[in-house]
Every structure is written in structure tokens, then in C-alpha cells.
């Protein structure tokens, strides 16, 4: 009888300790227990996500084929080694990265319900999406500069925008996009995420991730 009472008391003590531990962990950072986010997909259209995935897949394949075709054509034809076509090749490369950063994960969410995405994978996807979007706008500015010089200074176009200058512009756009967005994942790593890790998109977007944090986000 005494043994039964001791056993029951020990069991209750262990149960209380486990309950307190679970309560403490539930209020702590999710990185220790659930290192992932949950991507909803397209909110409100859960029943028709399979139908949406089909045209999205077709568009992604068209983007791949179209951009690769343009890159291959410019690469194999030396007569196209001109500023307009070189900037177009940069734009195609950026579009390939952007499409490949979003479409595969979105299709996985819509088709096979792969809603879970790891913490580091989410940060990498977010970085590539925002960084290469910034690079895309930089290349468009460079293309506008090329057209301006071609119209206003046609006789000096080849001397102003020679291959060396084009290469430097490309490097500047690349470095600008990387440096501009590098603080995003670094600042996100200092945030604490508690219980709500559900993102209302089919991919990781910066402000959607920031809004999930339960710590101070003023710097972000």
C-alpha cells in the first residue's frame, strides 16, 4: 500500500514536470521544436488549387523554354554580342532564377500538398526572390540607358557602351542586388518565432515572415 502511494506520487510529480516543460517550450522559439513554416498556398481557393496548378506549370515551362532559347541564340550568334542583346541575356538569366525560385515550391504546395518548408530554405527562397527582383529592375534601367544613348548619341554608342562597360554594369547590378537584400535574412535570424508559423502564400515573402515574429521587428 505504501509502495502504491509512493509510485502514484512519483508519477504525478513526473506528469507535472512534463506539463510545465511543454508549457515552457510552447512559449519559446519554434526553431528548437518546429524548424519550418507552413505555406497555405492560395487562401480561399483550396478546392481549386489543382486546377490553378496546371496553367501555372504551363507558364513555368514556357518561361524556361523561352528564356533558355533566347540565351542559347545570343550565345551562339556572335553578331548579337551587342549591348541591347547582352542586357536582354542578363534579363533572361534573372527571370530564370526568379521563376525557379517560386514556381517549383508553389507547384509542390498546390499539387502534392507539400506545405512545410524549412527555416533556412525559406530564408534562401526569400533572399533569391527579392534580390533578383532588385537586379531585374537594375537591368531594365541599364536597357533604358542603352536606348537613350542609341537615340541621342548614335555615333558614339559603340564607344560609350563597349563590352567592358557592359560587364561592369552587370557586375554592379549583381552586387547591388546582393548587398541590398543581404540584411534581410541576417535580421530575420535574430527574431523569435513562437506558435504561429503559417504563411498565407505559396512561397516565403519577407514581410509575411516578419509578421509571424513575436519579438521586436522595428529594425526589419
Automatic annotation (TrEMBL):
Under the heading Pfam families, the entry gives: 7tm_4
Q: Does the keyword Kinase apply?
A: no
Membrane topology listed for this record: Multi-pass membrane protein
Q: Which GO terms describe its molecular function?
A: G protein-coupled receptor activity; olfactory receptor activity
Keywords of this entry? Cell membrane, G-protein coupled receptor, Membrane, Olfaction, Receptor, Sensory transduction, Transducer, Transmembrane, Transmembrane helix
What are the G-protein coupled receptors family 1 profile domain coordinates in residue numbering?
66-220
Q: Which GO terms describe its cellular component?
A: plasma membrane
- TM segment ranges: 20-40, 52-74, 80-98, 165-188
The listed locations are: Cell membrane; Membrane
Q: What does this protein do?
A: Putative odorant or sperm cell receptor.
What's the name of the protein? Answer: Olfactory receptor
Which organism does this record belong to?
A: Camelus dromedarius (Dromedary)
Q: What is the lineage of its organism?
A: Eukaryota, Metazoa, Chordata, Craniata, Vertebrata
Amino acid at each position: 500500500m505504501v509502495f502504491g502511494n509512493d509510485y502514484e506520487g512519483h508519477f504525478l510529480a513526473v506528469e507535472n514536470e512534463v506539463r510545465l516543460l511543454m508549457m515552457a517550450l510552447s512559449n519559446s522559439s519554434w526553431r528548437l521544436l518546429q524548424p519550418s513554416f507552413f505555406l497555405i498556398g492560395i487562401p480561399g481557393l483550396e478546392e481549386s488549387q489543382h486546377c490553378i496548378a496546371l496553367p501555372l506549370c504551363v507558364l513555368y515551362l514556357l518561361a524556361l523554354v523561352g528564356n533558355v532559347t533566347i540565351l542559347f541564340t545570343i550565345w551562339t550568334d556572335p553578331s548579337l554580342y551587342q549591348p541591347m542583346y547582352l542586357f536582354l541575356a542578363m534579363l533572361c538569366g534573372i527571370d530564370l532564377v526568379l521563376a525557379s525560385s517560386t514556381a517549383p515550391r508553389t507547384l509542390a504546395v498546390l499539387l502534392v500538398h507539400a506545405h512545410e518548408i524549412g527555416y533556412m530554405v525559406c530564408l534562401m527562397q526569400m533572399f533569391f526572390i527579392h534580390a533578383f527582383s532588385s537586379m531585374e529592375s537594375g537591368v531594365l534601367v541599364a536597357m533604358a540607358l542603352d536606348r537613350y544613348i542609341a537615340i541621342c548619341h548614335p555615333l558614339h554608342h559603340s564607344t560609350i557602351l563597349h563590352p567592358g562597360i557592359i560587364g561592369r554594369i552587370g557586375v554592379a547590378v549583381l552586387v547591388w542586388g546582393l548587398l541590398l537584400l543581404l540584411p534581410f535574412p541576417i535580421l530575420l535570424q535574430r527574431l523569435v518565432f513562437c506558435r504561429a508559423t503559417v504563411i498565407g502564400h505559396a512561397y516565403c515573402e519577407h514581410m509575411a515572415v516578419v509578421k509571424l515574429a513575436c519579438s521586436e521587428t522595428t529594425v526589419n
